[in-house]
Amino acid sequence: MELNGPSGVLLIDKAPDMTSHDVVAIARRALDTKKIGHCGTLDPMATGLLMLVIGRATKIQDLLMSEDKEYVGTMTLGASTSTQDRQGEVLESKPVPAFSDEEIRAAFEAFTGDFEQIPPMVSAIKKDGVPLYKLARKGVVIERDPRPVRVTGYQVTRIELPEVDFIVKCSKGFYVRTYAHDIGERLGCGGHLSALRRTRSGKFTLDRAVTVADLKTAPREDLLKAMVSLAEISLMRGA
How many structural domains does the chain have? Predict the structure, then answer.
């Protein structure tokens, strides 16, 4: 195995206030390997499941990224922001009416099944080779095409206005920030995403995830043992 370096998927429980790229850099040092990438960027604010593909596993990166995801989040109603999450500037504030649980659930219900999302301006989507977030920093706003997405299930787990906690199961390319923003718009008071944690991607969950703290300090051997092998992945996928 060491001839070609390690291969497999290392599941990380990403800490807040770091980029997905930061995690890759830490893993590169910890595993002493250059061939490493990640599946599905998590915003700096978000925590939870980040899949690192190492060695030969980089070949199945697209395959792993195409699978459905599950997130646990909190939206805060009454304020829309430039990034659609709490890290942006507040663009508009409105009072939050005393919505009934039914009204909140009806707004979520409107965004189930197949529908389209307009990706946020602050995103990694590229326009003429330049990521939109770089243009957004310069104050440039580009017309974005709606993208087909799917929500296969959701649960509203807590309503304590202005906060609403939820779980959402969704397709790849789904922006939970935009989901929170769009539900806020539908309710007429605006809203943004204030917390987010990815709990599942395809068949992978946080059960076997390594924390970023462990990634920094654990012996390399322990990290290699924690990896999901390519053989196990093909069994999980029924290949």
Answer: 2
